[in-house]
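Appendix C reproduces, verbatim, an entry submitted by the partner laboratory led by Prof. M.T., so that reviewers can inspect both the input and the predicted structure.
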Amino acid sequence: MVLSVVIISDEDDCSVSDATMFDIDPELNTNDSVLGRLSSFRCFEFGVACNPDTPRVPGPRQECTPRSSSQFMPDVSDYADFLEGLKQDSSNIVVAGIIGNPTPVEVVIRNGRPKLDPSCSSSSGEADPAVRLDAFLKEFPERNTTTTICNEDLSDALTSIAERIASVLGS
């Protein structure tokens, strides 16, 4: 029996180990507070490390990876380890993502707040860079498939997922 996990998202992973990250306390909900304004940008700031590692400063980022020492967010490998622990034979796990492109990553300022520039867009909308989700999917070599959510037609993505599952079933 194959365990398949399919993630469809236009934002990156924002799973937390400390719910303080979502605190709406007015003292913490300012541009200058430790957490910054309550927005999905917190997920990037505390969940992704890039070069340069100055999350609130505008500009392009390179070499972005999940932040391994986040005080608020677990490492993506923790989720991979959890899934692997669910099956006696971990080769029977397939993960798939229809997600925002992991690159390019650029921080912009909009309405006085730091925000991620979308990494892709289509007539359906825009998607943030999915750095953490992409890294999670790569934890399953030969058992993953990734497609951009910004494709106008997602039928190829669904076909790719079905083919990946079929290949695992056949092995």
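The radius of gyration is 17 Å. Additional entries are available on request from the coordinating office.
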